[in-house]
Specification:
The structure is a homotetramer of 162-residue chains.
Chain A: E1 3-9, E2 15-17, E3 22-24, H1 30-37, E4 43-51, H2 58-70, E5 75-79, H3 85-95, E6 100-104, H4 117-130, E7 134-139, E8 142-145, E9 149-152, E10 157-160
Parallel strand pairs in A: 1-4, 1-5, 5-6, 6-7
Antiparallel strand pairs in A: 2-3, 7-8, 9-10
Helix pairs in contact in A: 2-3
Amino acid sequence: MTLRIIATGGTFDKRYDPITGQLVFINSVLPEALERARITEPTTFEPLMAIDSLDMNDTHRAQILSACERSPEQKIVIIHGTDTMRETARLLGEAGLQKTIVLTGAMVPYRVASSDALFNLGFAVAVAQLNAPGVLVAMNGRVFSWDKVRKNTTDGIFENTD
Amino acid sequence: MTLRIIATGGTFDKRYDPITGQLVFINSVLPEALERARITEPTTFEPLMAIDSLDMNDTHRAQILSACERSPEQKIVIIHGTDTMRETARLLGEAGLQKTIVLTGAMVPYRVASSDALFNLGFAVAVAQLNAPGVLVAMNGRVFSWDKVRKNTTDGIFENTD
Amino acid sequence: MTLRIIATGGTFDKRYDPITGQLVFINSVLPEALERARITEPTTFEPLMAIDSLDMNDTHRAQILSACERSPEQKIVIIHGTDTMRETARLLGEAGLQKTIVLTGAMVPYRVASSDALFNLGFAVAVAQLNAPGVLVAMNGRVFSWDKVRKNTTDGIFENTD
Amino acid sequence: MTLRIIATGGTFDKRYDPITGQLVFINSVLPEALERARITEPTTFEPLMAIDSLDMNDTHRAQILSACERSPEQKIVIIHGTDTMRETARLLGEAGLQKTIVLTGAMVPYRVASSDALFNLGFAVAVAQLNAPGVLVAMNGRVFSWDKVRKNTTDGIFENTD
């Protein structure tokens, strides 16, 4: 298995800016997170964009699709904001690529205490390895099909729409 | 899916004792780790024992097998020391239970900076969910069959014995 | 020496709210921070308020002054937002209490990676112990008199106004 | 004020070695800790040695004394193991240098969860700034004179010998 990790931003990758007091994107935390993970198989990291998923538009999503299309790796994990993860998953799902594409993210930034980010990364890497081609969302320790998932923004959890 | 997490100790769960300066077992970190993970499906945590896997003998392994046998959940993740993870996996594998049993652990304790523990937990939870009954080792972002795995103690990584 | 720690909120004490994605005040981190500090002398913690210092008005500052006045301890450390730390220091300084009052805070929240909060707490506790009655600001590893300090918001550091 | 920080090893600076499972010295954590501290005054870091203070002999202590003697800075913080901090403090105290020398350390390594290291560093930096020439031990949020301090190894705290 060779794996590609594509970072697009989202809560997972936010950092605290001491000057403005805001959560912002500076350098991706993924290289550090992947080093911690001690993965022995070849893994390619692609920092594609660094935005809040509420700021994603069709152009951004087209870029993500394009990155998946040109990926030489058949197994792809996309780090994505949770708010519009479903929309990106839908675009990728409808494209029907012959690759296993798993979207994950975090409810608490990697660099904040008690973050779920590293758990989700581990979970998503396994989901990518173990599934046939298709597009999946991996959050809250669950796997969702791209066309049957929504974020429950009241409780901050992902749910099946069935 | 309902999941059981069985803690047996190992590096994953070691804490620093400020009085002796040693790494010891006090309370398991698993409840805290599972809360971080934000898993929404029912998950049962069973703190079975808390020992270094180098100190495990046949009696300990029989206890682990027994815990797996009586588990009402079909999906089991065992947190285990890495040094004899292979031996426990073998005992469980030869028992041939109709459950999916995944052994994982950590090379760096959960409570030490840059630990792989939370990544491994997420990875193992997905491996348990997505595999048919059998016994697997999940380390270094890879899945190993119980009868084809060894720890390379020089490099600190798990390898396939094929 | 007996010491009182008064929490008023500020960046030091902010936590990430996974539902809203905002930094908010829930429970103070001070009890946890003080336990880490392993202080052996009696220390009283008073969670007085939990607000951003930009939201502080005269009523809030009067409450802080009142808390200092009624403190049975002669040594007081106030955890405060950095943006209006100077204003509160001025009010306390002009009141001329016969107590050593040290204001500190953080540029990065305690619960965010690479936070200065715990360093500042240690620094401020020593400053309180070692100074005669008066009002001081302790930030950036420096001690400032209440009437000669400003926050340089461009660089995110405290400076002497002399 | 200009400050020198001299690292000698000790619990403060220990890291976990994933291969051996032991706490060892690799690179000092002090540069990272000092960056977090956001100190604005010039600070010089000198990694003098990296050993457990139980392994310190007269030669090591002579090196520490020599480093203090040649320090151009008048304010010195020494990061030291706790077990023989008292012995080094005594040697330095009897030398009677005209510098303010503060020894500190940690009961829990900097890189382990809930470490007191960063608090102690902040505390010691203030103690160095605010005291006249002499040799002091700064631990547990207290300042001790070099000739009136001992470590209570049962409770893991420093005490006054008076």
